[in-house]
Description:
By secondary structure, the protein is mostly beta strands. It has a 17-stranded mixed sheet that branches. The N and C termini lie far apart (about 195 Å). The model is unreliable at about 1-30 (pLDDT under 50).
Amino acid sequence: MVVLLLCLSLVTAMFNSCGDENFWKNVSGSVTKVNVMSITINPTGDVAVGVGKTTTLTATITPDNATNKDITWNSNNTGIATVDTQSGVVTGVSTGTATISATATDGSGVTANKSVTVIQTEVKVTGITINPSSDVSVVVGQTTTLTVTVTPTNASNKNVTWSSLNTTIATVDANGMITGVSAGTATIRATAADGSGVTVNKSVTVTSPNIKVTSITINPSGNVSVETGKTTTLMATVTPANATNKNITWSSLNTDIATIDAQTGVITGVNAGTATIQATAADSSGVTANKSITVSIFSQGDGTSGNPYIITTPAQLDSIRNNLSAYYILGNNIDLSTYLASGGAGYIKWNTAGWRPIGYYNTPFTGNLDGMGYKIINLWINRPSTDYVGLFGSIDANAIIQNLGVEIANDNGGIKGRYYVGSVVGGSPFGSSGNSISNCYAIGDVIGASLVGGLVGYGFNSKINNCYVNGIVMSSDNNVPSAGGVAGTLTSSNITNCYATGTVNSNGDAGGVVGNVNSSTITNCYSTMTINGSGNTGGVVSEINGGSVINCIALNPSVSGVSWVGRVEGTTGGTLTNNWARNDMSVIVNGVSKTLNKGSNTEDGADCAAIPAASWWTTAAPNGPGWSSSVWYFVNGQLPILQWQR
C-alpha cells in the first residue's frame, strides 16, 4: 500500500508539470519564446479628438509571431485625455495635447507613443429668437436696437449677421441697430454666423416723425357770442403746420353757460353769461388755448357800437349784467311786473328782493344803453341792506345811459337800498373815469339810508344832462348825509338842464336837485320839491364844498331843516351865481321862519314867481336865468319841461 501511494504522487507531479512551457521545452527541446520587438500605433497620422468625444487607437506588433502580443494603454495627461488601458479608446477631456503610450506586456519593455490633440467640438446653432418679442417701431431718422437669443445655449458661435430686406424703409447695422428711413414696414433678418443656415425674421414698423403741437390759435380771434339755444362754431389752427397730430379736443369750463362738441367745436348757448372754451391738443403735448365766449339771449345785434343788442324783453334787460361793456338799445317798453311777480323768472332768482341791480362798484356797467325814448316800467327793488342799488348798481369808464324812462312800482315799495341808492344808477365809484346820463327820467319813490337821489345816488365824474325826476326821495341815516331830488351827492360832476318835483325827506342833508355838491357845478336846474331835512337843507342844494350853482331856480313850496337852511342852498363853500327862488317859499330853521338873505348870488336867491312867465325863463341875467328854448319848452302858466318830453 505504501508503495502504491508513492507511485500515485509521482504520477500527479509529472502531470502538473506538463503545463509548464519550460518543462516541455526541457522535455522536447522544440518550443522557444518570441518577444515583441516594436509597436506601431494606428492611425499613423495626426490624431485629434473633440472634448467629450472619443477615438480609438490600435497597435501593430512586430514581429508578427511574437509570443505575447498584448499591450497596455496609458495617458501621460489624463486632464487632457484618458485612454482605456485594454481597448485603446481615447476620450477628450479638455483642449490640449496628451501622449498616449502602448506598452508590450511580455516583459520586453517595448513602448510606442502617440500624440493626441484634444480640440473644442463645434456646437451648431439650432434656433434664434429676436428681442423684443413684441411689436417694434421706430420713427424716421431715429434708431432702435434688436438683440438675439440663440439655442442651444452652448452653441460654439452665437454671433449673427443682420440684414434688412427693405433698406428703403429701414437699415440695420452689424450690432442690430435699426435706423428708420421712411414710413412703412421692413423685414429685419438675423442669420447664424456659424454656417448652420439658421435665420429668423422680424417685422419693424417705421413711422413718420411725431412733431408735437407747440401752440393753438382759436378762430375767430375777435369777440364771440351766441344766443341761448343757438350754435356757433370755433376752429383751431395749430403750430407748427407740420405737427404730426393736428387734432383738437374741445371742452367748456362752464357747461351751465355753454356746451361744445368735443370734436367739431360747435358751441351751443345754454344760459346767458360768459363761458371759457378750451382747445386741447390731442397729441399729449399738453398744449391748450382758451377762448371766452358770451352767451346772450339777444336775437338782434352783436353788442358793438355799430350793431347794439336790441332789448325787447325783461329777460334781455336782465342779461345786460352778463356783458357789462356792450352796447344796448331798447326796442320797446319793458314791463317788469310779470318778471318780478311770484312765479316770474326774476322772482324765481331773487324772490322778494325784487330787481337785482346791474353792476357793482368793483364790477360796474361800462357800456352804453340807449332807451330810444322807451321806458322801463314796474321796477321795484327791496334790498334795504344792500349798497349800490338802482336799475344799474354802478356805472363807470365812460358808460352812457340816455333816452330812457324808469317808472317805479310804488305799490311794491318803490326802490329800497342802503347807501348809494337811485332809480337809474345807485352810484359811480369814487375815482370813476367818467360816465354820462342824459335825456332820462324817473317817476316813483327812492328810499335809502344815505347818498340817495331820485335819479342817481352818488355821482363821481358824472355828467347828468336834460333829465327830470318826479317822486319821493328819502334818506334815514343821520350820520352819513344826504338826499337830493336828482342826485344824492356829486363829486367832480356836472348837472345841467334838470328838474325835480315831489318831496325830499332826510335825516341828514337835503336838496331839491342835489344833496351835497363837492367840486361840482349845477347849471340851469329847478326844483319844486318840498324839502324836509335834519341837517343842511336848500331848495336846490343842501351844501356846496367847492363848485358852483349857476342860473338855478328854487320853486319849492317849503324848505325846512335843523342846521343851515336856504331857499337855494343851505350852506356854501363855493360860488352862487344868478339863482332865483319862489317868493312865497316857506323857509324853516329849527321850527322858526328864517330871515331871508335875498339876492341872485346868495343862499336865498332873488325873488321870482311860483310859476314865472314863459318869457322870463329866457331873459338873461340879471333879470332872469337866461335859459335856452332849444333845450326847454316854455308855456305861460306852466312850469317848463324839456324839449325831448314833447
